[in-house]
Design brief:
This protein is of the alpha+beta class. The chain contains 27 helices and eleven strands. The protein has helices at 3-18, 24-32, 36-53, 117-132, 164-170, 175-194, 267-282, 289-294, 297-306, 312-317, 322-328, 334-341, 344-352, 364-375, 387-398, 407-425, 429-446, 451-474, 478-490, 495-509, 512-525, 530-538, 547-559, 567-577, 583-596, 601-618, 621-638; strands at residues 74-75, 78-87, 90-97, 103-110, 141-146, 152-157, 162-163, 197-198, 207-212, 215-220, 227-228. The strands form three sheets. The protein has a six-stranded antiparallel beta sheet, covered by helices on one side. The chain has a three-stranded antiparallel beta sheet with strand order 7-9-10. Strands 8-11 form a two-stranded antiparallel sheet. A hairpin with a 5-residue loop joins strand 3 (90-97) and strand 4. Helix 21 (512-525) packs antiparallel against helix 22 (530-538). It is elongated. It starts with a helix and ends with a helix. Residues 52-67, 234-244 and 397-426 have low confidence and may be disordered.
Amino acid sequence: MSAISENAKAIFLVAVEQHAPEEWPNLLDQACGENDILRQRVEGLLQAHADRDSLFDSPDPTQDLETSEMNGETVGPYKLLQRLGEAGMGVVYLAERQKPVRQRVALKIIKQGMDSKKFIARFEAERQALAMMDHPNIAKVLDAGCTESGRPYFVMELVKGIPISGFCDENRLTTRERLKLFIQVCQAVQHAHQKGIIHRDLKPSNVLVTLYDQKPVPKVIDFGVAKATNQQLTEKTLFTEVGSILGTWEYMSPEQAVLNQLDVDTRTDVYSLGVMLYELVTGETPLDRQSLRGAQIMETLRMIREDEPPKPSTRLSSLGKRATATAAYRKAKPESLVSEVRGDLDWIVMKALEKERARRYDSASRLGEDIQRFLDDELVDARPPSLGYRVQKFVRRYKGAVVAASLVGLALTAGLIVATYGLVIARTERDSALRATAALQEAKTELEGNEARLLATLEEWRHELIDRGIETALRGELADTRRISEKALAAGAPRPYVLLLQGLAHLFHGDSSRAHQLLNEAHELDPNNLGVMSVYLMTMTGGDMDQDKWQQLMQKVNTLEVEGEYRDYDSLFKAWTFFYSDSEFSVDVLTLLLEKKKNWPNAIAILSAAQSHRAIESGDSDLSDQALVNVNAAEAVIG
């Protein structure tokens, strides 16, 4: 099948599955752009579809094709009072039943012009799906039937609410309050999954929040594209056709973004929940709405399947002028909001949004439970991607023809690879401080009078703090790095090294100006400090200082011998400095370090990335394969 034919089929299916006929011209404008051949192909398919199902035949061309029902008419025992809107395949009315008790309800009727066998089957599936569920956070089905013209309808409780994102913003809910509300949504979706139902179109407009006894209660609605996972929902056959695309772009999982959605399971809803959680936290969807809806269909599907969104804290940091308003909706200041989200909440959201289903939460309840652990200040199950996983993706991406990537791109990628290793260790500062304090107290008690051993304990404590400081610095965690580096200073670490850690933190946080200021101050305090000089040069380019001075300092770093208490760190930073210009030298230095100091995570991480870089520079696939072996070995040591 040609590319045009494939694109035409995709656009046609989206049009007939997700849009009313009057919306088709705008859809074709967006999807086809100036491609007249593609547009003609799609229009031909739509016309053939109309002729086949007689969707457009009407004796009166001015008749409203969406619905023939009017306010005041009766459907079964229900009087239609007001049209509330459209939801998927149906039109929703506010209706009232007079007998046996007076009751106002929401009544949904299949749209006029969408009453083919396929659509009726799916509509009846929604009706049956809702009838099987009984949960306080899922809208209840009260009744069902058919209109006089034979179109099915069903009646559900009237949820007088607004979409969850709008409710949270209107009521200025804090991040923690939003998370508590979202946990209820996870519980509702889990109930549906236990009944064998996948929603497949979870989004804020399908989660309405209303007040019961002044407490907000979310209600999940519109199972119009629900899929039964382990049972038949209706006597009529209902299959997702090959080529169908169901869902809403911004909230669609990668496995839905294909022309064949047969391979969909409950983790699809977990992904959509992750998108909603991202939006509740940041006010934005992971993938930009305008970009998704402005692209042609196949490009939109590719973006959903392949484009990795930024972490929530990163998105919040990049909002610019909108940051103040976004934070105000959450009763916070921009800086405090970023700080609250960075770390565990980042990883919870990103685990739910993993492109690979096997790496997501395996159920909606697991996602909700991890959010509860976050609220309770407990360790969360979400873990950052391992060093091996990140480096393998990096090496495979640039293997072969893509070896000729730019130096700047490689430097940024390598920096990210190095930064991930600290997350793998997954130690908390609190645990580290408790262990170190206990060790120091034990040393003071048991070694009183033995100054040499006490000093050795203090040195070990200083080194542990510096190691921890490097980890937090490479993650760009400014507050944690400052707190740890100040403890290192109090334990006797030299001030230039403290400024080095803080400079690295600002660099990986994205504030290169402040990073250079701190590293320059450290260098001026001790011009012969090899570690400081190495990092100082590593973060500068020839244009950031006098070229002659830069070359002189580079030569000094190359020839200066390492010695003293911090010689291992000096060697580590020296190897990092030559990571891009002389990866072979970097590998040699780090190999010697690991012979002396086995299983040192800092050296292992940089060595693994350096080996990968050597393989990429050479363009040799055998070296690339060997690099992957070394990365896996490093990951096994780090754990």
